[in-house]
Amino acid sequence: MIKETSADKLEMQFSEFTTENIAAFKENAAAASALTLELAVLREQHRDPSRQPWWEEKGGNPNLDLIEKYRPLAEELDKVMQKQFFLLPEVLQKEIQEHLVISQLLGDWDPINPFYKNMGVVEDEWGELHIMRLDFGSCLDVGFRGQAKEHGYHMAVNQRPAVFPELKHIFKEENAPFSEVLPKLGEAFDNLPYADYAKSISGNPEWAEFTRLKIAYRCVLLRQADKNIIADIIRRNLIDEPGSIAGLKTKESLIDVMNARIEALILQCGGLEKIDEFERNHQDVANSIRESVLSALQDHGQSFG
């Protein structure tokens, strides 16, 4: 997103990416790259191995001089990056919304952050551009730095230093636990510590219903293929040692929560009848999703997940 050469690749793949889009994307990329470098230099100048974190003075007080220099640059980067995401072709913006909905379903706290990492545009082996999401370490009942979400709430809130721009959408403590309670996926982002950043790149709210249906359809297909697949993935891949990390749920509790969240997603979509209607009315999309699910099941076999 901060490479000017990405504009040329977008032009090659998307006919709607106009000359004006190219110029604006390159201008934003150059500005974002310069701001990112300035911010990195400031962070490095204030790193001190004898104390942590980098944004504080000794004794834990905010570094007022750093705040004065850092925050305006960070605010400007936010503005530039939001403009950059809005320039992406619609199909990529819709992919971003899908990634955000999946993150919400999985309880992922970190799909996008103040450094604009973890989500971006990548080129696949055939040269086509897609959105990719990295780092799912803060999913399910795990919060930041390996703490359970309930225990990690205050870290999630308090770790945001004064040097960063102030958030408009406050992360509420009642939204921290990983439970069957879901926000309106694709529309409400108050269950994310970085709600402002997610909201700013979430695309058109009018797409959200269709996005939810696509994710719900995928979940239904997975269950049809193997009703125990989600339970098997959790049992096979997660640690379940009592007392290993305070507050973490057992595997069986996580299985119950994930199943409940999927049921809540299906209800948000209007129920199984609406999902069947989606399949009938959008056969090309449904077939593509079905092929993707079956391919993943076949390729990964018992290691799927």
Describe the structure.
This protein is mostly helical and 305 residues long. Helix content is 54%, strand content 3%. It is built from 11 helices and 2 strands; from the N terminus they run H-H-H-H-E-E-H-H-H-H-H-H-H. It has helices at 5-13, 19-45, 64-87, 90-106, 149-158, 195-200, 208-225, 229-237, 251-268, 272-281, 283-300; strands at residues 119-123, 129-133. It has a two-stranded antiparallel sheet with strand order 1-2. A hairpin with a 5-residue loop joins strand 1 and strand 2. Helix 7 crosses helix 10 and helix 7 (208-225) packs across helix 11. The longest helix has 27 residues, at 19-45. It starts with a helix and ends in a 5-residue tail after the last helix. The model has no long low-confidence stretch (mean pLDDT 90).
Brief synopsis:
The protein has helices at 5-13, 19-45, 64-87, 90-106, 149-158, 195-200, 208-225, 229-237, 251-268, 272-281, 283-300, and strands spanning 119-123, 129-133. The protein is mostly helical and 305 residues long.
Top keywords for this entry?
305 residues; 2 strands; globular
SSE order and pairing:
Layout: H1 5-13, H2 19-45, H3 64-87, H4 90-106, E1 119-123, E2 129-133, H5 149-158, H6 195-200, H7 208-225, H8 229-237, H9 251-268, H10 272-281, H11 283-300
Antiparallel strand pairs: 1-2
Helix pairs in contact: 1-2, 2-3, 4-7, 7-9, 7-10, 7-11, 8-9, 10-11
